[in-house]
Specification:
The chain is mainly alpha-helical. It has a single domain, classed as Rhodanese-like domain (Oxidized Rhodanese, domain 1). 49% of the residues lie in helices and 6% in strands. It contains five helices and two strands; from the N terminus they run αααβαβα. The chain has helices at 11-20, 26-34, 37-44, 64-75, 87-94; strands at residues 56-58, 81-83. It has a two-stranded parallel ribbon. Helix 4 (64-75) links the parallel strand 1 and strand 2 (81-83). Helix 2 (26-34) runs parallel beside helix 4. The longest helix is centred in the last third of the chain and has 12 residues, at 64-75. The chain is globular, with a radius of gyration of 12 Å.
Amino acid sequence: MMRAPRGLAGAAFLKLAFAARTMAGVSELETALRMEPAAFKALYSTEKPKLEDENLIFFCQKGRRGFQATQLARGLGYKGARNYGGAYSEWFQKEG
């Protein structure tokens, strides 16, 4: 199972990490975050992150799409949206 980057643990990370495995990418994120909670759960098999979640962590392979996803989520009101700047590459080197 994927672990949250150090200091960024929490249910929101796990929810989004699980959902992200089935998403097409940033292009699908806006639609997903605008869904009703029941529709999100039916499609992604996990609870939809809440606007008030503190650690809604986005990441990608190199960092650019994770940053874009973070900006998109913040624009939709997810104040705890954060980008894991080291991206998957750094996480894999340290934790993988």
